[in-house]
Amino acid sequence: MYEFIQSILGFMSPELIINKGGLILLLAIVFTENGLFFAFFLPGDSLLFLAGMLCGLPILDVTIVELIAYIALAAFLGYILSYFIGKKLGKWLLSRPDSFFFKARYLNMATSYFEKRQQGAIIVARFIPVIRTFLPLCLGLIKSDFKVFMLYNFIGSLVWTSSLVLAGYFLKLIFPDLLHYLEWIILLIIVVTAIPLLRQFYKIKKAKLS
């Protein structure tokens, strides 16, 4: 059991994903995390940042423009898939008992986040783990206007991808020695991106108690 857990944690390592699978696995992970609700635990933000740092190296031998375009497309298509899953299966999912892969409170958090920010939430939520994965599912469930969703989906995927990939890319150019501290950088990204999620969870919990 311990070895199985270790293998799962290893698979979730952004460095291992890119080293072992290259661009194809990177795009598959981005598409899956954005498109399938049960993949909410995958390392989206840190994966994009690391991809930017490794862009141009033998592992990711593509230009920075190509890398951003490929990842943004994977994120864009993932959201479309999640929207239609929510539209077709959302009510059925809510009727199911909670499990590790689907918890109703995750969908409620995404709904609450959208209600406060409306369409802008589709852009901002890209930077928040869990909410990023469940928001398009929520929008499909409530049958949000698809044309408007597509517009903000496009903008959000481009902003999310370009900001994180370019941050990693330029940081590597300015401080090339940072490549030796990838583990610490990834840990810092995970901690920083988890803060908005924890705040949203706290707000919902506080609202229920009041």
Can you tell me about this structure?
It comes from Algoriphagus jejuensis. Belongs to the DedA family. It holds the Pfam family VTT_dom. The protein is mainly α. The chain is 77% helix and 0% strand. The N and C termini lie far apart (41 Å). The N terminus is likely disordered.
Q: Which keywords apply here?
A:
single chain, 210 residues, mainly alpha, 9 helices, 0% strand, transmembrane helix, VTT_dom
Which spans have pLDDT < 50 for at least 5 consecutive residues? 1-9
Taking the sheet with the most strands, its summary is: none
**Element order, helices and strands?**
HHHHHHHHH
Q: What share of the residues does DSSP label as strand, in percent?
A: under 5%
Number of domains: 1
Classification by helices and strands:
mainly alpha
Radius of gyration: 17 Å
What is the total tally of β strands? 0
Shape label: globular
- Rounded mean pLDDT score: 81
Subcellular location: Cell membrane
Protein name: DedA family protein
Pfam families: VTT_dom
Transmembrane segments: 21-42, 62-86, 151-175, 181-198
Task: List the topology elements.
Layout (H helix, E strand, L loop, with lengths): L1 H10 L2 H22 L8 H11 L9 H31 L9 H14 L2 H5 L6 H11 L4 H29 L7 H28 L1
How would you summarize what this structure contains?
This protein has about 210 residues and is mainly α.
